[in-house]
């Protein structure tokens, strides 16, 4: 199992619990999760959603040609499996693989639906939370569909710079090294195609690559213009 690049992502501390998170903790059941296993696979019958207490989970989807597209890296305080709510005969739309062992709060689908229907303020909080995540998902898919593998790579570089970027005299340095194979998983592409696109960006002086593998973005405007970037807030445009 190739999860080395996910292991480079920092573990985060638990977020300040919201009213929604407090309610989920009260009605759910704690379940241990173990590195290398899955909470669920795409297409499985869906009866639960999960609130992450500790550990780290990656959310991915298989493309039509069998490649894995990594969509989210979820940490403490995040909810996964939420797309099944308020749908009949639900199945999971995505897969959830555990990268760091920890614990989740397991919540019965029917129970959480009942709680949300009986508490309008919590339902509104959940709707706002879900809308933010759907917007992240939609922008990633949009970049891939409208601009192909190039758009996926360019948007991934922008998201990585928003998540891990530091100011550099020549631009923005992504302060974490990723191999071409690792970048390919964010783009549902092959390592070879990522290598070709990065080489072209270096030729155009859009990026350079440090000796340790970190990418320096020297012309982020070029990347943004190429994908029709809407200059979303960092809360939306990030890799998590």
- The N- to C-terminal Cα distance equals 21 Å
Measured by DSSP, the beta-strand proportion falls in 25-35%
Record field, number of beta strands: 10
Average pLDDT taken over every residue: 84
Secondary structure tally, helices:
7
Radius of gyration: 19 Å
Shape, please? elongated
Class derived from helix and strand content: alpha+beta
Unreliable spans are: 8-14
The ordered H/E elements are HHEEEEEEHHEEHHEEH
Helical fraction equals 40-55%
Q: Largest beta sheet, briefly? A: 6 strands, antiparallel
InterPro entries: cNMP-bd_dom, cNMP-bd_dom_sf, Env_Response_Regulators, HTH_CRP, RmlC-like_jellyroll, WH-like_DNA-bd_sf, WH_DNA-bd_sf
Organism: Siminovitchia thermophila
Keywords: Activator, DNA-binding, Transcription, Transcription regulation
Pfam families: cNMP_binding, HTH_Crp_2
Which terms summarize this structure?
alpha+beta, single chain, 240 residues, elongated
Secondary structure layout plus pairing:
Blueprint: H1 4-7, H2 19-27, E1 29-33, E2 38-40, E3 48-62, E4 68-74, E5 79-80, E6 95-108, H3 109-118, H4 120-164, E7 165-168, E8 171-174, H5 180-187, H6 191-203, E9 207-209, E10 215-217, H7 220-226
Antiparallel strand pairs: 1-6, 2-6, 3-4, 3-5, 3-6, 7-8, 8-10, 9-10
Helix pairs in contact: 3-4, 4-5, 4-7, 5-6
């Amino acid at each position: 199992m190739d999860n080395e690049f996910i292991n480079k992502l920092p573990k985060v501390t638990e977020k300040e619990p919201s009213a929604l998170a407090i309610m989920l903790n009260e009605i759910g059941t704690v379940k241990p999760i173990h590195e290398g296993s899955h909470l669920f696979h795409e297409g499985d019958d869906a009866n639960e959603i999960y609130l992450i207490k500790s550990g780290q989970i990656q959310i991915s989807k298989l493309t039509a040609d069998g490649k894995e597209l990594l969509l989210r890296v979820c940490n403490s305080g995040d909810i996964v499996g939420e797309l099944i709510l308020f749908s009949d005969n639900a199945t999971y739309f995505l897969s959830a693989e555990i990268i760091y062992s920890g614990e989740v709060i397991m919540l019965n689908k029917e129970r959480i639906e009942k709680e949300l229907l009986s508490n309008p303020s919590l339902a509104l909080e959940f709707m706002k939370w879900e809308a933010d995540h759907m917007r992240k998902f939609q922008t990633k898919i949009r970049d891939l569909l409208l601009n192909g593998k190039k758009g996926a790579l360019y948007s991934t570089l922008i998201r990585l710079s928003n998540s891990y970027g530091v100011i550099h005299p020549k631009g923005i340095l992504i302060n974490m090294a990723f191999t071409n194979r690792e970048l390919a998983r964010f783009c549902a592409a092959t390592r070879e195609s990522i290598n070709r696109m990065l080489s072209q960006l270096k030729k155009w002086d859009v990026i350079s690559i440090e000796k340790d593998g970190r990418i320096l973005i020297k012309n982020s405007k070029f990347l943004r213009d190429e994908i029709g970037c809407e200059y979303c807030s960092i809360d939306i445009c990030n890799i998590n």
